[in-house]
Protein 1
Amino acid sequence: MKLEKLSNGRFIKTSIIVLAVISIFGVIFINKSKAKYRVTQSIQIVSGEVNYKVADLNVLAIYKQKSKENTNEENYESISDVPTSGYQLNTTKSYCTKPSTNDTKITGDIVYDGKSISVNNITEKGTKCYLYFDINNEISSEERFKNLGLTLGKGTPNFSKTACSSGCGETTNGVYTAQDDFGTSYYFRGTVSNNWVKFGKVGNSDIYWRIVRINGNGTIRLIYSGTGTAAATGDGTQLKTLIFNSLRTSAMSVKYLNSAIQQDLDYWYDSNLKSYANKIDGATGFCNDVDYGTASGSDQYFKPYDRIETNHTPSLKCELNNLYTTSGGTKGNQQLTNPIGLISADEVNYAGGVSSGGNSSYYLYTNQEYWTLSPAHFDGLARMFFIYSDGEIMSGGMAWGDVNHAEGVRPVINLKADTTFTGHGTSIDPYILSGN
């Protein structure tokens, strides 16, 4: 494991060279109170010439969490080396001190990417840093994919065509990959029957979901598919029909925050899922891409329209201001009260739906109309993408897509990355969260 010192000085060459020096030269451990310190003062790097020296950071104390229950001081033990796996840096608890500030704690200058520690903006000799590492049982998207025993599809799907079993587009069924804001995402596409999850209850009835994708951070995105039994189609696959927003003559009525549908989903979450909050992730978020795309006459299109309708190039990436997350994450706008949203039109396109025709074979077809979270266009009325009863991705017209027109509501949540399952993902043997 390497300790890197980043600076704006003219001597910086590479962080990797610093690793070599710290690993090879003069690493001394000193026992003092409960910490083991690494002295790195005045270490020189030789690579044909002396091109860098670390003379500022001279004491480092490293601690790791003993159990995951809490982050109290007594729950940490001193260690000699930065852990290489199984832990994550507690950026809130870790800090540095500088003599010139009377050893006042300074946070925000320490970065851990899972492979290296970087201490930024060190300009003063005698700086001391204290690093706290928390237990991390999270599973990466790649590990999740392997653990679930899924099969990766071949080739790259054509997103202008539907994905189905045969005869209606192209037979791209299974799991494929795309990049999202967190890494490699594994998404389900086409006619699949191994993405069922049973999680939570409404009253005494189990809630059934379909896995949309394994997000790039290892969390799992689910879309609601009814209660009681694992129904793939029918009115029971959605909570209700509801308007998206009451005001339809403003282009910004396509925003999710404080919309009628968000308020209703918050209420449903509080009533039915809040007791499972320790299983649900709030940092991954939901994309409500309200950025303007092209315009035609008096019509203003939003970027999802350009991607889905015009270019057939869906994306799982989202501008951070449009990525609705709860507080405490590292990305997104952190404006949600509860970690619940809707599916995006891009995700439906990845799953096998298109804007140019129906598809009754892919797993998001329910024979019902329901909302997405993606704005389509503004033509005097604010319109959202929604899924038509034949499985087509619709962008509005006449009353359709108008934010004040009632469509079905299918909640979407993300399960935490440390979630483990039993079961095989079928409708009769769905994945069940361990300990649920």
Note: The two ends are 37 Å apart (CA to CA).
Protein 2
Amino acid sequence: MTIPTPRIHDMKGVYSLIISNKKDQEIPIGARGPIYFKKGYWIYVGSAQGTGSTNLKNRLQRHFRKDKKIHWHIDHLLIADVELIEAIWAGTDENCECVIAAYLGESDLFQWGPIGFGAGDCRTSCKSHLFLYKRSKDVIATLEGVFENLGLIPRKYSDLV
């Protein structure tokens, strides 16, 4: 039996952005100033629990656009010399981005990113919502496994567009 892909329109959910940084570099992150980012895959964990412009579809589309108003930490990173290569998402009414962040932070495959990055509105005192993936391959499969281990059905953004 095949599980149908849910409609992403007006859906709430959680996601992980996979960002490729091809070189060690300092990137200015708004008022925080320049932050050093190692070469490799960086994973940003976010959620979209609203409707309209803040639903899952619109939030993900916004992340993949270069032309946007810069508001969040992740916006500063995504307009830098990096490549957003994929997003893994799951539909859920539960705001579980901090659960995913905690899972990644406890895993040997990920390293915490800059303290407080993307976690300004975090209610569970996460260190960060940005992580460096310690391997050089299988990042998509690894994140899909994380979602599955947490009882979520992972989907790829690229399968929707």
Note: The chain has one domain: 13-159.
Protein 3
Amino acid sequence: MVSCNPFAPAISDDEGENTTLGDQRTVEGVFQNFRYAYLFKDTLTYGRLLAPEFTFIYRNYDAGIDNSWGRDQDMIATAGLFQASQNLELVWNDIVLTTGDSVLQDISRGFNLSITFSPTDIVRLQGRVNLRIRRNLPTEPWIITRWRDESNY
């Protein structure tokens, strides 16, 4: 007989799907925690990823200009997304480009994001982020200082 606790079921039945927090002292841990924050709509984990001077930059294609906002506005927008959606599925694709050193890196990476607002309202996005991450010492966790959305939707 296999032992199982019905009051503590597995978070996910998908083998290989990482649903635990990563070590933010590694670049992959940053992306793992980002995914975790979206999967579990965890604003605390998401907030730990962002530097106090964080800037989000996106292109307004209709106006032909770049717009940006800071950490506080991003936290409000992300919390709104987390509350408005029933489910978020974020998949990070291969890293396209990495430049930098042990305390500052620019990383360009593709992603797929599915946002379920209701069973009949599901938005699927593909895009690319260009993140700048930093830390003061190689032993400290990475934090995101700039997120440039390079998607064109």
Note: Confidence is low (pLDDT under 50) at residues 1-16.
Protein 4
Amino acid sequence: MNKSIRVETNDPNNKNFNLKITGDVEKFVTISPSRLRLSGESWASIKGSVKIIPEKKYPFKILSVSAKNGKDIHQELKEAEHKEGKGYLLTVENIKKDAGRYFDVITLKTDSKIRPEIQISVYGNISSKKK
């Protein structure tokens, strides 16, 4: 990874300069998909799932799951075996019964000191009941 920023200071001899940061970034976890979209009609069952697979170099356990708002969704986390390795399956179900849109964030608390929380965005788009 390479990033550059322009730094402005109050030093009269060095009013501004470019600062370059370079480093290796290692993957900690695979989250697929990275965000969840729940769309459908309010009368139908609307669910989606997210695979969470820790990298072998950075194993962790998920200790708890919570939604920031939680009034439009219900979430369930299970340990699961995926073709990519051992991990978790997060299933999210829409519980909103009227038409409208919503946004929520699910927070997974982990036992990792590197990344104690993982957040997953959930977008809902619910259309009106069938007539």
Note: The chain has one domain: 26-127.
